[in-house]
């Protein structure tokens, strides 16, 4: 098994299962080369707690995140001979106070450990402060607040995402089109292009076309910005385990990103040991169908021994010193997955 740049554990995330060490052990059992531990950053408003978090007495998300970083660093050292663990965080983007909190967490990391996070996964889970990937009911509430149509919600989400991208410039952009989780099963463009239940008149069709252009222009705008600073899109298999036909991002976004020369990394976004490397075989089938031939992964570089080479490979401005980019062909990743699957059968 190859790599994942995005994961969670039940020890530090109320909607996940298993301890962080159990997640690491599962990644080792699945022969992962690189596994990123990227817990959600704390949310700073009581109103932002999820239902399962409201049931935890005395919950302190900031203290829990501090404990996560400490445990992740311990495991990074403990298992360094068996797997490369990257320690990072996944962002939120809820309101104006989110950015100062991100900066504070980064400064604390630098102060405590003498270096920044190994990576930041830049994600948006809220539109108008409403979660858009928790339930269909909340998704509909966010859609109503955005203007009452799928396209209006998608546009509002992409605008929030651009704000996050400009402020944070994350190395890895998390589940680029997660906003479609409870919408039509298709991409941000192809989902909106699905035929209606009854034919539309010319004016209605033109209105639909305008809405599609409104969304797609924002997709291209955001992708262009990510490309400008050297960010990576994650191919996130969690969409497949949640029942969608395509991963995040869907084929329409992947094709546009490929046309820009953009780079992809793999992520399972696991929230339990049973989800480590889940759906990777199906994900690889999708990757091959859309024409992706090369994947990338972040890893820890040998700064002293390979200083010149690592300087060349550390080609994304978002990567801290000591974190480098490697590439691998999809054909080689396919061979890894097949070898891993064979070892499980024997």
Give a structural overview:
The chain contains 12 helices and 11 strands. It has helices at residues 20-29, 51-54, 61-78, 98-113, 136-146, 150-168, 202-229, 238-241, 251-259, 280-290, 307-313, 330-345, and strands at residues 3-4, 34-40, 84-90, 119-122, 126-127, 130-131, 172-173, 232-236, 263-267, 294-300, 323-329. It has a 7-stranded parallel sheet with strand order 1-2-3-4-7-8-9. A two-stranded antiparallel ribbon has the order 5-6. The two termini are 16 Å apart.
Helix tally?
12
Biggest sheet features: 7 strands, parallel
Arithmetic mean pLDDT: 89
Q: Poorly predicted ranges (pLDDT <50, ≥5 residues)?
A: 303-314
Report helical residue fraction.
40-55%
What pattern of helices and strands is seen along the backbone? EHEHHEHEEEHHEHEHHEHEHEH
Q: Supply the helix-strand structural class.
A: alpha/beta
E-strand count: 11
Strand order of the largest sheet: 1-2-3-4-7-8-9
Rounded radius of gyration (Å): 20 Å
Strand content: 5-15%
Distance separating the two termini: 16 Å
Q: Which geometry do the CA atoms define?
A: globular
Question: Main traits of this protein?
Answer:
346 residues
Please provide a brief summary of the model.
By secondary structure, the protein is α/β, with parallel strands linked by helices. It has helices at 20-29, 51-54, 61-78, 98-113, 136-146, 150-168, 202-229, 238-241, 251-259, 280-290, 307-313, 330-345; strands spanning 3-4, 34-40, 84-90, 119-122, 126-127, 130-131, 172-173, 232-236, 263-267, 294-300, 323-329.
Topology:
Elements: E1 3-4, H1 20-29, E2 34-40, H2 51-54, H3 61-78, E3 84-90, H4 98-113, E4 119-122, E5 126-127, E6 130-131, H5 136-146, H6 150-168, E7 172-173, H7 202-229, E8 232-236, H8 238-241, H9 251-259, E9 263-267, H10 280-290, E10 294-300, H11 307-313, E11 323-329, H12 330-345
Helix pairs in contact: 5-6, 6-7, 10-12
């Amino acid at each position: 098994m190859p790599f994942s740049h995005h994961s969670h554990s039940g020890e530090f995330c109320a909607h996940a299962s298993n301890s962080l060490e159990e997640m690491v052990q599962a990644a080792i059992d699945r022969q992962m080369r690189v596994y990123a531990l990227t817990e959600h950053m704390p949310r700073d408003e009581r109103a932002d707690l999820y239902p399962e978090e409201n049931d935890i007495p005395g919950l302190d998300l900031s203290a829990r995140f501090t404990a996560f970083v400490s445990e992740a660093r311990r495991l990074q050292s403990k298992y360094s001979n068996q797997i490369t663990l990257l320690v990072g965080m996944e962002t939120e983007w809820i309101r104006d106070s989110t950015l100062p909190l991100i900066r504070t967490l980064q400064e604390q990391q630098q102060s405590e450990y003498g270096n920044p996070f190994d990576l930041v996964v830049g994600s948006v889970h809220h539109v108008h402060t409403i979660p858009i990937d928790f339930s269909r009911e909340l998704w509909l509430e966010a859609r109503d607040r955005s203007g009452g149509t799928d396209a209006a919600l998608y546009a509002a989400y992409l605008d929030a995402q651009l704000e996050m991208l400009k402020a944070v410039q994350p190395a890895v952009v998390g589940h680029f089109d997660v906003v479609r989780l409870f919408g039509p099963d298709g991409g941000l463009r192809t989902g909106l292009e699905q035929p209606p239940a009854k034919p539309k008149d010319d004016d209605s069709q033109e209105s639909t076309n305008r809405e599609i252009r409104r969304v797609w222009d924002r997709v291209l705008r955001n992708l262009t910005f990510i490309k400008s600073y050297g960010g990576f899109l994650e191919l996130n298999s969690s969409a497949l385990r949640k029942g969608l036909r395509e991963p995040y991002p869907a084929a329409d976004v992947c094709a546009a990103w490929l046309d820009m020369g953009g780079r992809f990394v793999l992520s399972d976004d696991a929230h339990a040991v049973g989800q480590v490397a889940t759906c990777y075989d199906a994900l690889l089938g999708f990757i091959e169908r859309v024409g992706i031939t090369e994947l990338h992964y972040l890893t820890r570089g040998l700064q002293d021994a390979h200083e010149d080479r690592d300087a060349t490979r550390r080609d994304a401005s978002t990567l801290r010193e000591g974190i480098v980019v490697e590439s691998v062909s999809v054909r080689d990743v396919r061979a890894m997955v097949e070898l891993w699957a064979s070892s499980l059968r024997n």
